[in-house]
TrEMBL record:
Ranges for domain Protein YjdM N-terminal: 5-33
Domain called Protein YjdM C-terminal: residue spans: 50-119
Organism domain of life: Bacteria
Record-stated family: Belongs to the YjdM family.
Pfam families documented for this protein: YjdM, Zn_Ribbon_YjdM
PANTHER family per record: PROTEIN YJDM, PROTEIN YJDM-RELATED
Organism classification: Bacteria, Bacillati, Actinomycetota, Actinomycetes, Kitasatosporales
InterPro entries per the UniProt record, alphabetical: YjdM, YjdM_C, YjdM_N
Region (Disordered): 36-56
Name used for this protein in its record: Alkylphosphonate utilization protein
Length: 119
């Protein structure tokens, strides 16, 4: 149970209430899971923090290096280990693909953070 119920992150309403495992805002009907006190792995905005293969936190606009050779459908060669990817964007992707980027020679694609290292 939450002692101090946080205000709504969407509309800043202070009249939020707990319903089952969610906190609900009566004004904008926004529902969210409350952050546990001392929860690790989340950033200041409450989103899940994305970390690279060695544990460094990643942010939008970072440059990363692919640490493992990757096969790409429709491409005979794939992406080689050591390929530098600039200006990444963090997304809530499908199946663990949480980095949206553009790779020279391949175009736009999504990568898993477990196969890159911050440059």
């Amino acid at each position: 149970m939450i002692e101090n119920i946080p205000p709504c992150p969407k509309c800043s309403c202070e009249y939020t209430y707990v319903m089952n495992a969610l906190v609900v805002c009566p004004e904008c009907n926004h529902e969210w899971a409350p952050a546990e006190p001392g929860a690790e792995g989340t950033d200041a905005a409450g989103k899940q923090a994305v970390k690279d293969s060695v544990g460094n936190p990643l942010q939008d606009g970072d440059t990363v290096v692919v640490v493992k050779a990757l096969k790409v459908k429709g491409s005979p060669s794939g992406i080689k280990a050591g390929t530098k990817v600039r200006n990444i964007r963090l997304v809530d992707g499908v199946d663990g693909h949480d980095i949206d980027c553009r790779i020279d020679g391949f175009g736009a694609m999504q990568l898993k953070s477990s196969v890159v290292k911050k440059a």
